[in-house]
Amino acid sequence: MMLQTLNFSRQSVVSQPITTNMDWHLPAWLPTQSPKQPPSQSPNSLPARLTDIEGEPNTDPVEDVLLADPELKKPQMYAVVMYNDDYTPMEFVVDVLQNHFKHTLDSAISIMLAIHHQGKGIAGIYPKDIAETKAQTVNREARQAGYPLLSQIEPQG
After folding, report:
1. Mean pLDDT (whole number) for 19-36
2. How far apart are CA 32 and CA 69, in angstroms?
């Protein structure tokens, strides 16, 4: 066995044996440790398994666990509601319904007329996060175009 001398500072010198099976991610100056042997069963040691309270091995057979299919429920749906105002052009509302809610020209016109005559209309029904995103996008686009078009979400039954 060879001895290696390492200088850590001007005042201390450490001598340590060099071993061939050093752990590569530890610094070379740390001593290597041999793997610990499993402790023998003694009165002060913990049992190998929780069921071995008296230190005796558990002989109960292990039972298979039956897995049930997860019970998934459908998410709460929200309607994106667009409200009528006196300043937003009908063409802009139709364009928004076609671009953001993927309505055909005919369905976009009928929804726009419902908004105009009834004061509000449902542009689409989505899960909450999607509905919030679509309403915010429509509101942002309307503000950028200079229109006061308002869309909000409402929970559906």
Report:
1. 59
2. 50
